Amino acid sequence: MCGIVGYIGDKPVVDILLNGLQQLEYRGYDSAGVAVMCENKINVYKAEGKLENLSSELLIHKDEYKNSTMGIGHIRWATHGAPNVINAHPHTCNCGSLVIVHNGIIENYKELKSELEKKGAKFRSQTDTEAVAHLIAYIYNETKNLTEAVRLAAQKIDGAYALCVMHSDKKDELVATKRNAPLLVGVGENEYYVASDVPATIPYTKKAMYLNDNQIVTLTRQSMTLIDSEGNELPKKVETLPWEPVALSKMGYKHFMLKEIHEQPDVIRNVLTGKIHSSDEPIILNEVKLTKESLKNLNRIQIIACGTSLHAAMIGKYIIEDFCGIAVDVEASSEYIYRKTVTDEHTLVIGVSQSGETADTLTAIKQSKARGSHILIITNRPDSAMAREADSLLSVNAGIEVSVAATKSYMAQLVSFYLLAIYMAEIKGNMNTEALKTLKSDLTLVPQKIEQILSHKEYIQKCAQYYANTKDFIYVARGINYPTALEGALKLKEISYINATGYPAGELKHGPIAMLDESMPVLSILMKGSVYEKLLSNSEEAKARNARMIALTNSKDEKLKDLFDFIIEVPEIQELLSPLIAIVPLQLIAYYISEYLGKDVDQPRNLAKSVTVE
Ligand code: AGP
């Protein structure tokens, strides 16, 4: 995580850096800083906390940098060292003539630090990054060549990094490089922008060059030079990005999260557009390259993801196994990458990621690709590093999601999994065609059913406020909605910091039931279908232990009234599609509890939207 920006040109640099950092705030928000080239030296400004604190700090010093047209900036998600001003980037060498910003983790920073201390480096922060500042400065002092210093320093670094560097000797030079962390250069007229992600550069230019690992770019106002790790000059691939600058607005909602929850019906319509034409016609997924032959050769499917995307993957497993009869395993990417996995050319590997950048998932994908598996990526960012590894791509089109807690991107991932499962079932020809037709036409009805839920959200708000002061919260479900319970619990944890857990309801009696008493809310996701009666019995067991019972249901069953204190009703839907409906009230419960408690809904503590460290 962390976001880095850089600019060299003829415009006032501080505005550009601040605007860029604002666009990258989703990557971290515990401190921020900029370094700008002033007449005789580089000035560094930093502030703890949100970007607005840095803006206020900069305002105080505006006369110092008013003519500056070159600089670098950083927004931090702390990995090494507390989130304070000393640990905020940019970091400098002893004399402050070399400054760097960094995204990633330097794994051998302790070794580097002790070597550099022996050579006279004075460390001020607890960060891993500062070792790189001293290392580059040390090499620069010998070579007097900034690009060469960065290139040679990179050879001594283990770990992941995107770096942007400047030196007070070089008033017309920025150097940047990367390994296993995203970085691009926006190309303007006699000006260049460096950024971790497109939103920081797109307001200024649509032209950009993505850096590959170990490449080093040197930017002056008039030129851009790209070299590899050996120092050989490389051709530059400048693309015109299919992006439009978007003004990020809450559109009258109090928070982005609430706005994004309300966008879900339209997100589903978007995802379905061009893919389902009618229930009689097959699903069209243009960038998915699976054939009858390749599906026949598959032994299994492995889905890899993290967090909310992992929950979407768990529902993906359920429906692919149900519709296609192919065995599917789902695993957290962070676990997958550190064991001996049995993945080969007969495995279809599906990576799911809103950002397309998550380091664990990206590493897992690269490992499976090296073993010859077909890689299918489901992502909201078709321009991301993960998408670039894909043999097949399912772009979920949820639009930019600002709130750190994922809602509409989860919905888009789920719908994409339904499309994929139906698509594969149609190719395999193993599922009853009438059932497939009904699935397709029922899918198109989901947006209006979600609209119905949203139009009655006041009852959900009342329920949320009633439980807002609880310390713990349990969500139970069975079958296809067990991942819905996990996702509901994750949403609540993320934004309210309440200890929430999702359980398969049948597991309650194997341990968790010991926690139940009159203080514990238990929410049952009671969707009509194969496990309804079983879940009802499990809810009775919880009620018998005096738990505070809440039902989320599409049943009109009268007996629910005796069992539950709150009954949140949702529209009828066939069981296989019910996760699409059931998640919405759970997102709203999490939102309203967080809002009621006065938490920072869109930027909860300790989190970042894009997790680019393993
Ligand atoms: C979702 O609310 C979370 N912020 C988080 O769990 C997220 O889903 C996870 O970090 C994976 O991110 P990705 O989808 O971008 O890979």
The total strand number stands at 24
Number of spatially distinct domains: 3
CATH level 4 superfamily of the largest domain: Aminohydrolase, N-terminal nucleophile (Ntn) domain
Proper CATH architecture of the largest domain = 4-Layer Sandwich
How would you characterize the largest beta sheet? 8 strands, antiparallel
Give structural notes.
The chain has 614 residues and is an alpha/beta fold. The chain folds into 3 domains: 242 residues, Glutamine Phosphoribosylpyrophosphate, subunit 1, domain 1, CATH 3.60.20.10; 192 residues, Glucose-6-phosphate isomerase like protein, domain 1 (Rossmann fold, 3-Layer(aba) Sandwich), CATH 3.40.50; 139 residues, Rossmann fold (3-Layer(aba) Sandwich). The chain has 20 helices and 24 strands. An 8-stranded antiparallel β-sheet has the order 3-2-4-1-10-9-11-14, with helices on one face. Strand 23, helix 19 and strand 24 form a beta-alpha-beta unit. Helix 5 packs across helix 6 and helix 8 packs antiparallel against helix 15. The longest helix is centred in the last third of the chain and has 23 residues. The protein is globular. The model has no long low-confidence stretch (mean pLDDT 94). Bound molecules: 2-deoxy-2-amino glucitol-6-phosphate. The site of 2-deoxy-2-amino glucitol-6-phosphate has 15 residues, from helix 10. 2-deoxy-2-amino glucitol-6-phosphate binds next to helix 10.
